[in-house]
Structure formats: structure tokens, C-alpha cells
Design brief:
154 residues; alpha+beta; GNAT family N-acetyltransferase; Acyl_CoA_acyltransferase; N-acetyltransferase_domain
Length: 154
């Protein structure tokens, strides 16, 4: 059984540490930035969305639990205009992977969203993250586009 619950203020610093580390690596790998620049950009993104920590806004950070044990995180933001949500971050701790928690978390999120009239979940997957791509396809996501970039050297 999976439970999605709002993150507490005392849990936010650990999430921030995980997110900055993980997302900065993704930025460096995908866009060729130095780790120093990638960490700066990851920090900026987190602060832009959570300027006052968890007290705020349109973004929601959830803890994913199984039997009261923290197994991961899910960050999303609802857009009431088009009745959708966008998943910014979805993470299952490596020692909890391959137990079906990812699928169960998506199903739990769908149930919560359906109950408040939200009809679509959107997200972005890094091209090299085949594990995530497979999970999302297994739970019914369809590829709706591609993000592309090109570095221009002088």
C-alpha cells in the first residue's frame, strides 16, 4: 500500500539536498554545464518554485510512503485552467525500486487528482532515463513531444 502525503517543513531540507544533487547532475549531463553552474541553476529552479519553502503556492511536494516508511518524493503543480498537473520531480529511493512503488504512486496520484476534477498528468523525461520512460509507458503515458537542444560554439 502506498500513501502520498504532504511533505512537512522538517522534511524539506533533506528533499532540497536530494533535489539539488540529482537535478544538477541531470542539468550537467543534458546541457553540458559545469557542475558549479548546474548546482546554481538547480538551486534557482527550486527557489523559484518554493521561495518560502513549503509555505506557498501552486506547487505541492509529496512524500511517498509504504507502511509508514519514506520510499520517495513526488513534486507536481496543478493548472486549474486546463485541468492538468505537471510532475516536476518523481523519485523512488534506489533501495526501494523494483517493488512497484512507482506504479502505485502514480495510481494514487491519479486517484487524488480525479477526485478534484483534474484530468491529465504531464511530465518531462530525460532521454537517457529509460527506467522512467518504461514506467510511465506502463501506466499509460504517451509520448507527446521531444525536447531538443543544440550548443552553438563560437
Amino acid at each position: 500500500m502506498i500513501q502520498l502525503r504532504p511533505m512537512t517543513a522538517s522534511e524539506y531540507p533533506a528533499y532540497s539536498d536530494y533535489f539539488i544533487d540529482d537535478y544538477s547532475r541531470e542539468i550537467a549531463n543534458n546541457y553540458g554545464h559545469s557542475m558549479e553552474k548546474a548546482v546554481e541553476l538547480a538551486n534557482q529552479d527550486l527557489l523559484r518554485c518554493f521561495p518560502n519553502g513549503l509555505e506557498t503556492n501552486d506547487h505541492e511536494l509529496l512524500c511517498i510512503e509504504s507502511d509508514s516508511e519514506l520510499v520517495g518524493y513526488l513534486w507536481h503543480s496543478i493548472n486549474t485552467d486546463d485541468k492538468s498537473t505537471f510532475i516536476y520531480d518523481f523519485f523512488i529511493y534506489s533501495n526501494n525500486r523494483n517493488n512497484g512503488y512507482g506504479k502505485l504512486a502514480i495510481i494514487a496520484l491519479e486517484s487524488q487528482l480525479k477526485s478534484i476534477g483534474i484530468g491529465q498528468i504531464k511530465l518531462r523525461v530525460a532521454y537517457q532515463n529509460q527506467r522512467a520512460l518504461k514506467l510511465y509507458q506502463e501506466v499509460g503515458f504517451a509520448i507527446s513531444g521531444y525536447n531538443m537542444s543544440k550548443n552553438i560554439t563560437s
